[in-house]
Amino acid sequence: MFESRYASSPNEVKQMDTEALRKHFLIENLFVADQCSWVLSFFDRYMTGGALPVAGPVKLEAPENLKASYFLERRELGIINVGGAGKVTAGGDTYELGYKEALYIGRGTQDVQFESVDSSAPAKFYLNSTPAHTTYPTRKVSRDDADRVELGSMETANHRVINKLLVNSVLPTCQLQMGMTELKAGSVWNTMPAHVHDRRMEVYFYFEIPQGQAVCHFMGQPQETRHIWMQNEQAVISPNWSIHSGAGTSNYTFIWGMAGENLDYGDMDFCAITELK
Q1: Residue 191: inside a domain, yes or no?
Q2: Residue 73 counted as domain residue
Q3: Average pLDDT of the chain to the nearest whole number
Q4: Which end is more exposed in the chain, N or C (fewer Cβ atoms within 10 Å of the end residue's Cβ)?
Q5: Which residues have C-beta within 8 Å of that of residue 120, sequence separation ≥ 6?
Q6: Alpha-carbon distance 167 to 173, whole Å?
Q7: Given a cut of 80, is residue 152 above it in pLDDT?
Q8: Model-level pTM?
């Protein structure tokens, strides 16, 4: 499965209703049994996908639109497992990925496939991919390997732990950066105060949302915000000019992925909470 999304300017987004916002930015169905699903955004040519191997291994193949002989011919790939135990074979080597463990695969790697250890509890491989200019080594990153930062407080309902997994403080990449933020019980706000960063775009993937609960994701320019209601295991595209923040009806976890010209995690322009409109 493959879909492409055109980039949108702030002026266009100002005119969008709920249906249009969801059509342009929300990714609803990432995990389809025994397939790789992909959405290509023309913001930094970022690809967001999912692989759900149930009946057997699922091979990573290049969609026709990439005009590539194999998927990673000119790309790098980040993987975080959000399901049961799984295995990823890349270039002849096999990596076991447990829940919330990550794998980086460098440009030029061929013969990549995804497999579940137990088909009754299949792995769910959340995938992000960006264009790459050089090759860096494939490497697994466990939760213990992550660069962890604890932020926020219960008083402001945003007590959270940021796990920097595939970032330049942990391993080298071309432009892809990925991590995972876990909100503590009783906290609901993420990425608040909000920010923008002109030199990179971002995609958020929300999961561990309890049944019957939801997350309201905020986007748009700081003085012209919009919102998208999201369900469990859905992703949303965030342009470089847009804030990317959210509040849930319960605590939850989300994976953030970024691409652009700068790998400095702290490169962001904060927006004062009282100035958001």
Answers
A1: yes
A2: yes
A3: 96
A4: C
A5: none
A6: 7
A7: yes
A8: 0.97
C-alpha span between 117 and 126 (Å, rounded): 16
Determine the length of the chain: 277
Tokens coding 252: 């939850």
Q: Where does 82-214 show beta strands of DSSP type E? A: 86-90, 93-97, 102-105, 112-116, 125-131, 139-141, 147-151, 160-166, 177-183, 189-190, 195-196, 200-207
Task: Return all residues near 118 (Cβ < 8 A) that are at least 6 apart.
Answer: 84, 85
Extract the tokens encoding 138: 């494939």
Tokens of 33: 């049994």
pLDDT band at 249 (very low <50, low <70, confident <90, very high): very high
Residue 266 pLDDT > 80: no
Note whether 11 and 4 are within 8 A (CB): no
Q: For 179, what's the count of Cα atoms within 13 Å in the CB-facing half-sphere?
A: 21
* 26 assigned to some structural domain: yes
210 in a domain, yes or no?
A: yes
What is the average per-residue pLDDT within 189-199? 92
Burial of 101 (0-12, 13-18, 19+ CB in 10 A): buried
CATH at 144: 2.60.120.10
The annotation places the binding site for Zn(2+) at: 195, 197, 202, 244
Question: Cβ(40)–Cβ(74) under 8 Å?
Answer: no
Binding-site residue numbers are 195, 197, 202, 244
Instruction: Over range 24-36, report the average pLDDT.
Output: 97
For the chain, what is the domain count?
1
Tokens 């999304």 belong to residue: 5
Distance (Å, rounded) from C-alpha 1 to C-alpha 128? 15
Tokens in use for 104? Answer: 């980086």
What DSSP state is assigned to residue 188? Answer: -
Find out whether 4 and 212 touch, Cβ atoms under 8 Å: no
Q: Dmax over Cα atoms in the chain, in whole Å?
A: 53
